[in-house]
Specification:
By secondary structure, the protein is of the alpha/beta class. It has helices spanning 14-26, 44-52, 64-67, 71-84, 100-133, 143-146, 148-156, 161-168, 172-180, and strands spanning 2-8, 31-36, 58-61, 87-90, 95-96.
Length: 182
């Protein structure tokens, strides 16, 4: 069975979702799953599609970025589907993981993406080191320590760490550290 999955990040991308669904139907997908959610947020419909897929099925997406948010996430999905005997087709790239060439292409793409990510992180580290050397990089200002007196006052009023964190717009862990540094 061909199973189609489509995703957009926002309601404003309605035309993009409709185009994905149209393309998936044209390819003969018998079951369609679609959702509007950020790639970094929870994706319950994708999880449902992965659960639904059975041995011999093919999960079809129009573009890789509709399916996976990162190279590790792509490999996580691929391993899940591979263990179930399910193939993946990525239309705009012409990749079909049921073929040896498709598997090779996924490995090459994954390697290139991982390489690019590591190069970007290296350039970022170099840039930060250069900025620190020039005295231009100070890091983020410590927001919780700047509010230490407010945190302690609210704690004495009987507020919980969670309530203090919400009221002051800092993390609960930061509140905890301030209170334990007394």
């Amino acid at each position: 069975m061909l199973i189609g999955y489509a995703r957009t990040s926002t309601l404003e991308q309605e035309a993009g979702l409709e185009a994905q669904l149209r393309d998936l139907r044209a390819l003969g997908c018998e079951k369609l799953f679609h959702e509007r959610t950020s790639s970094v947020g929870p994706r319950p419909v994708l999880e449902h599609a992965l659960d639904f897929a059975r041995e011999g099925d093919v999960l079809v997406v129009t573009k890789l970025d509709r399916l996976a948010r990162s190279v590790p996430h792509m490999w996580e999905i691929m391993q899940t589907l591979q263990a179930k005997g399910v193939a993946v087709r990525i239309i705009n790239m012409g990749i079909d993981s049921s073929t040896p060439t498709g598997k090779l292409m996924l490995n090459v793409l994954g390697g290139v993406a991982q390489f690019e990510r590591e190069m970007m992180l290296e350039r970022q580290r170099e840039g930060i080191a250069k900025a620190k050397g020039a005295g231009k990089y100070k890091g983020r200002k410590p927001t919780a320590r700047a509010k230490a007196s407010e945190i302690k006052a609210l704690k004495q009023q009987g507020l919980s760490m969670g309530e203090i964190a919400v009221r002051l717009g800092v993390g609960k862990g930061s509140v905890h550290r301030v209170l334990n540094s007394q």
